[in-house]
Amino acid sequence: MATQPSSDLTRRTAAQLSEALRAGEVTSVEVTQAHLDRIAAVDGAVHAFLHVSAEEALATAREVDARRAAGEELHPLAGVPIAVKDVVVTKGLPTTAGSKILEGWVPPYDATLVERLRAAGLPILGKTNMDEFAMGSSTEHSAYGTTHNPWDLDRIPGGSGGGSAAALAAYEAPLAIGTDTGGSIRQPGAVTGTVGVKPTYGGVSRYGLIALASSLDQAGPVTRTVLDSALLHEVIGGHDPRDATSLPEDLPGLVAAARAGQGGDLTGVRVGVVDELNGEGYQPGVRARFEESLELLRRAGAEVVHVSCPHFGHALAAYYLILPSEASSNLAKFDGMRFGLRVEPTEGTVTAERVMAATRGQGFGDEVKRRIILGTYALSAGYYDAYYGSAQKVRTLIQQDFAAAFEQADVLVSPTAPTTAFRLGEKLDDPLAMYLNDVATIPANLAGVPGMSVPNGLSEDGLPVGFQILAPARADDRLYRVGAALETLLEREWGGPLLNRAPELATEGTTR
Amino acid sequence: MSTTTPPLVDYDEAISRFDPVIGIEVHVELGTATKMFDGASTEFGAEPNTQVTPVSLGLPGALPALNGKAVESAIKIGLALNCEIAELCRFARKNYFYPDVPKNFQTSQYDEPIAFDGWIDIELDDGEVVRVEIERAHMEEDAGKNTHVGGATGRIHGAEYSLVDYNRAGIPLVEIVTRPITGVGDRAPEVARAYVQTLRDIFRALDVSEARMERGNVRADVNVSLRATPEAPLGTRTETKNVNSFRSVERAVRHEISRQAGVLDAGRTVTQETRHWHEDTGVTTAGRVKSDAEDYRYFPEPDLVPVAPSREWVEEIRATLPEMPVARRRRLQTEWGYADAEMRDVVNAGAIELIEATVAAGAAPAAARKWWMGELARTAKTEGVELADLPVTPEQIGQLQQLVDAGRVNDKLARQVLAGVLAGEGSPEEVVTARGLEVVSDDGALLAAVDEALAAQPDVVEKIRGGNQGPVGAIIGAVMKATRGQADAGRVREIVLERVQQG
Fold first, then answer.
1. Would A330 be classed as within a structural domain?
2. Is position A18 annotated as part of the catalytic site?
3. Residue A364, class by beta-carbon neighbours within 10 Å (0-12 exposed, 13-18 middle, 19+ buried)?
4. Nearest residue of A to residue B162 by CA position?
5. What is the 3-state secondary structure (H, E, C) of A114-176?
6. What is the pLDDT of residue A512?
7. Which segments of chain A have a pLDDT < 50?
8. B59 and A107: CB-CB below 8 Å?
9. Does B477 have pLDDT greater than 70?
């Protein structure tokens, strides 16, 4: 097979690129350059990237090509480039978490998952845009400008990981890393027609993720196919002694589960529909696609049952106490003393306390301040029991709901997000409406269970919607089996990936 | 509020009218090789900010990983203080902004300490034993070290700029908190000192810390309050922070008692506050008022999992605990048959281990004490060194005493042998040989010397024959002189008596 033109390389899945690289049909330099060209062509309109590390990516690609040429045994994904959400610390590459307070900061160390990417030989294309400190559902809270949804540039790409999802949907990267605290991988996946996985809490090391809410944060894959997510998940997952909450046991076989699912047979699998995560507040097109997907699963042999999780109604309220509480403490370190932005007060004496106040006043955006204030209040003496304490009790009830539901079903399902991508600016002045977009994804974070969003069609407005699959903790393999099966059945109906129906983006300059 | 400071009340006067209650918080830096939550070295004295990792600098993304050795040390301390060890306990975040706290929160234990409800017996100088109840012992990380440059006081106010050394940030600490110590009256300052001293000895016995006061390995915060009578409710307390020597602990308590008595006598109330201790002037000054104390917004540290030491592990640790210093002292005193005053001198001279090893090397306890508290103590004093630093081992003292016990050297010769050992001439045996110091008990040599002495003092011979044995000493003295002290005095006496009878 002749070398493909570069423009085609960006349309391939990571699994296909992996095969082509191993077969010697293409080099990593060619694949990496193709994506860098695509970024140069479309990112002016999409703005998925905050930093493009072309030189470093090409250097890695050259090294991988040389090792492959020398006959070295390489990781299957070696040479396949990747984009990394800017909340993940990368040695030598600027890392801002979408905040002015970290503008110009170049970390002296790598997150564990980045070490694993480097060890496997994945060239890092750059850092992707996000809501500041991962607080948001639209990427509009980035201090560096919003990211645009490749399906409709006037719409949000979801958040907080809108940059990673948009990079995948715009073919700027074949793989990306996201983080999910309340849906920041899955909801952007749903509204951009891409796949996103939030692993079991503790499944991927948090060492080197700039913490939003420590007990909720989890990094995971952002891809265009379920199999690609499995491949990436196996690279970044597994125990890390530097993260005390990292699970000690090995990951279940995720790639194997995805390949098994691609057969399209779900005989004997019990699929539980969570009644509380469907119905009022969900867009008609979202509900229609969900019902159709359930029918596909039934036809594939799955047994569809209905389960009730009565406490999910309180999840959002509990989440918005736990998250701000932890965040208010996690973000205390941004004070202008050791790294990042430092602002000296323009009048009066310069004391450490006043430098801290000036730095935080100027460095943090409104949404970050809003949540720090909420969290500081919720943790204060006299309010702790009523707020943080009660929220933790709700969290326990939600975990019990999940435990009961998983006795009746192997996986639970729901629409990923209640609506398709809304227009830029539409919910910016209404934080509560913005928060409601995560109503279906938040329970998984509160319980620590894994979840996946798979694109399952277009709503009546022509925009993509997502199908959420949830599994018990440590049973991430079930996501991949069911997700890959659904993906296969849907693509048979569509005659190809959903993203094929996305409008072509205008390109700047010429692509090779 | 009046601006004048009420005068101090004489200590005895204060004690005669007020009942002091004290409470002590001791922080001990554990001697682990690495920090509480990361792999940075804990070695003392390195260049500033060289013993740091992303974790101890609080860089974005860094996470704590608990040092298991530190947990083991904390459990050891808890067990040595007769505490319960928690089956499950968590760390919490204590949130406050200060540049020496890299994350702007300290990872500490709040309402779930690893050890709680214990006690320890401490012994005062006169042998009185006081039981101090321990409320809790918990784990936490140390902060960095601030140096305030410029300004007169060395404190942050008035300084031109401040430097922070994060080498100390993250060093594992155990904080031990007593319950209020009541009923000790005028001995409160001494109790406070003896308590801190006892803890220091325990830390060393457990080998959990070098426990060097001058390096700040052990730091004490002393709480003092006064009340009119022991039946009255507790008075308002002050907390004097960072008192870093035994003597200062005693002085600080004493000073606070005098100062608070003055405040109360002036009809004012004691302010609940932290106070600074001034080593040079021996006074405390007001620090932070506790009523505006910050709200630390404690909550369980979500980056760490609960610590759940298994009962098996706790029992394993308990089984390896060394004997505690006070118990050991009591046991040794009984075994050695020392009087209380003798034992106290031995303790104060730091000679327990030396005497124990000397006894193990074969010396009788009384003889061992005589050497270390006598000749060797004098030498150490002259040289200006500690007993343990003298160039002689307990084993050598044991060998020397065995020479005495076997009659091979007498006391005078033994001191010469010791001088040889201290001068680096080798073992006692080697010194005896090299210097020819062995006593002469060869009858031939002694007979000649005795006869010579007898011949020189015929009057003495007559007296002895007449039944008066007193003058025998004069003959022995003459023989000793003639043999340069090397004669076996007992044998000389026998020979003298034999010759006199024969003659």
1. no
2. no
3. buried
4. A352
5. HHHHHHHCCCEEEEECCCHHHCCCCCCCCCCCCCCECCECCECCCCCCHHHHHHHHCCCCCCE
6. 41
7. 1-6, 510-512
8. yes
9. yes
The first and second tokens of residue B83, run together, are: 């505490």
Task: Provide the ipTM.
Answer: 0.94
Residue B3: pLDDT band by 50, 70, 90 thresholds?
low
Residues B117-135: tens digit of each pLDDT: 999 999 888 878 999 999 9
Quote the tokens at residue A411. Answer: 């996986």
**B60 pLDDT tier (thresholds 50, 70, 90):** very high
Q: Identity (one letter) of the amino acid at A426? A: E
Whether domain B443-502 has CATH 3.40.50.2300: no
Rounded to an integer, what distance in angstroms lies between the CA atom of residue A168 and that of residue A499?
Answer: 10
What CATH number does residue A260 fall under? 3.90.1300.10
Q: Tell me whether B48 touches chain A (CB under 8 Å).
A: no
Whether A332 and chain B come into contact, CB under 8 Å, resolves to yes
Q: Which of B59, B93, B305 to mutate to test the interface with A (most CBs of A within 10 A)?
A: B59
**Whether the Cβ atoms of residue A200 and residue A449 lie closer than 8 Å to each other:** yes
Q: For chain A, how many structural domains are there in total?
A: 1
Find the residue in B nearest to A330 (Cα): B103
Rounded to a whole number of angstroms, the distance from the CA of B111 to the nearest CA of chain A is 14
Q: Is B169's Cβ below 8 Å from some Cβ in A?
A: no
Residue of B nearest to A241 (CA): B65
pLDDT in tens, B353-374: 899 999 999 999 999 999 999 9
Does the beta carbon of A250 lie under 8 angstroms from any beta carbon of chain B?
no
Structure confidence at residue B155 (pLDDT): 67
A160 catalytic per annotation: yes
Please report whether residue A512 resides in a domain: no
Domains of chain B, residue spans: 11-317, 323-435, 443-502
Q: Which two tokens stand for residue B231?
A: 């039946």
Of the candidates A245, A338, A380, the beta carbon closest to that of B57 is on A338
- In chain B, residues with a C-beta closer than 8 Å to the C-beta of A356 are 97
Proportion of chain B in helix, strand, coil states, percent, rounded to 5: 40, 20, 40
Which residues from chain A sit within 8 angstroms of residue B298, using beta carbons? 379, 384
Is residue A85 flagged as an active site residue? Answer: yes
**Nearest chain A Cα to B103, which residue?**
A333
Which among B65, B102, B156 has the least Cβ separation from residue A244?
B65
- Mean per-residue pLDDT of chain B: 91
Q: Is residue A459 part of a domain?
A: yes
Q: Does B163 touch chain A (CB under 8 A)?
A: no
Residue B284 CA: distances (Å) to CA of A104, B217, B287: 46, 22, 9
Residue A506 resides in a domain: no
Give yes or no for B99 touching A (CB within 8 A): yes
Rounded alpha-carbon distances, angstroms, from residue B468 to A500, B460, B479: 131, 9, 19
The reported pLDDT for the residue numbered B366 is: 94
| Catalytic residue selected from A18, A53, A85, A414 | A85
- Name the residue range of residue A405's domain: 6-312+397-501
Q: Encode pLDDT of B285-317 as tens digits.
A: 998 776 555 799 999 999 999 999 999 999 999
Q: Does the pTM of the predicted model rise above 0.90?
A: no
